Amino acid sequence: MNDIPSLSAPSGAPKSHASSHAPADRAGPAPLRRDARAADVVRRLEGRSIVLVGIMGSGKTSVGRRLAARLGLDFVDADAAIETAARMTIAEIFKRHGEVFFRDREHHVIARLLGEGQKVLATGGGAFMREDTRACIAERGLSIWLNADLDVLMRRVRKRSNRPLLHTEDPETTMKRLIAERYPVYALADLTVVSSDGPHDGVVETIMATLERSLPQTKQPHGATPSDGSPRISAPVRSGGSMHAQPTPALTRVPVELDPARRYDILIGPHLIEDAGAQIARLFPGAACAIVTDRNVAERHLPSLEAGLDMAGIRHTRCVVDPGESSKSFGVFAQVCDAIIEARMERRDLVVALGGGVIGDLAGFAAASVRRGMRFVQIPTTLLAQVDSSVGGKTGINSRHGKNLVGAFHQPSLVLADTGALATLPEREFRAGYAEVAKYGLIDDPTFFGWLEQNWRHVFGAGPELTRAIASSCAAKAAVVIRDETEQGDRALLNLGHTFGHALESLTHFDGTRLIHGEAVAIGIACAFRFSTRLGLCPPDECTRAIDHLQEVGLPTRIRQIPGWTDDADAMLQAMYQDKKVERGALTFILARGIGKSFIARNVPAEDVRAFLIDDLQS
Fold it and tell me: What is the pTM of this model?
């Protein structure tokens, strides 16, 4: 590979060195002066570069050039710098040396550029996928994901031929695969901004506003004031159990890219319950709403939701049920369906699920059933529901034989995850929801799990890390749902810990005073790792690490920690045979070969499970 020049050549190398096919380095001179607003943002960056990440076609170069001019910083396109140093195009590098070689050199170029002073840097679509590159960006820069829809991306990339990863027979299918693979990782960026159709200057303005709201304040030079007299904008702060910011912080959006008729967005941020009326009116003009909630949630959040619907001129009705797992029953399901019909809701109207996972499952199943299918909106108010049950379209109720055995796959039309609502959660409920967050790292993302180990206290403290944890979890689940909507394949991985956990819930008769779902999942995950280690699949130190983290945040990890537990291994085994993953009478588990290395294990011998349970119940 010595026929390619070093890609660590200075970014200011003469442009004449580049191949005749390679574009010139797109860095431009910085303006001589900044306005007060730009100066404030640059000061608060404290020397860090802004690094734009995202998939090809998301607008990193066009937006980056304009943003750099706005801030009075240099702009560098990493791909252009690589092409200049290599004297050949990216496509030529891929063809001659392959992607692995390119990614390695790309990492070194980005590290060099970030070491050369503050700038706006646009990275290639695959750069952020490398853990060491992400670490380098985190150390020296602030990453911003430009998040674009599939249709926007395809319109943009069809205009250019220099996309080597899209040189396939079906570029759109390739792009969908790349979205599924990359968006969960892009969601780890410090900030997310939607890159939609329209002038790039609009995206730049959104980035500016997001930076103003997100960057910590620094002391102003003596006597310095904004030239336009505008007030300084502080980052969101937690005060009195609520999130407050002026103005309202930008929302984080995670798209679920199913077919065009059923795609939907997950919006994450504060004030979404009170803003739901405006969101619904924008997306579903003329639709009426049937709100399904429980008494506890209704007391806290229903007035805000209904006030917003009234302001938007949306006709609405309510159906309030008892809180808890007991409402996921045939009787309550019939009650909800009758209430929706009695309110004269039509097929194109909306069922709105306001509450935790129980309400989401119940209302979603009613929406799937009334008039053979209505649209519905998820407004999850618990951490568990925001990161898991509100996303992906699983709906249902319980049978006396087990959990979630009657239901349907019915995707929502919109998910509004109001982070402010989490301030009202009891600590036990928040901690239980965190079990589902940790699950995503344990399934297939060791980097995310490592980030959680370092940052879980900030997640619990409702800092920016909470939004990041929710967005990363939702993006991970969305990617799996896109690949396997009806759980015919690897969507079953999302059930890590659930075979054990659902059996525990069934045997405690869904008594929330003894065990709530997230606690059952935490115990189930610990059982799955201990069982994997017993079978010789998972190294003991990896098992210990996974369980230690769950224990550190205060989650139970042993069956004996369930108050009043008296059942034996045979009772557990019988409850497991009602699990949805059982096929032709054979048990299926999600097991692990280590952190982030989960897999589907079919036809697990019952005698192995029973022997494990006997020992585990005694330890």
Answer: 0.60
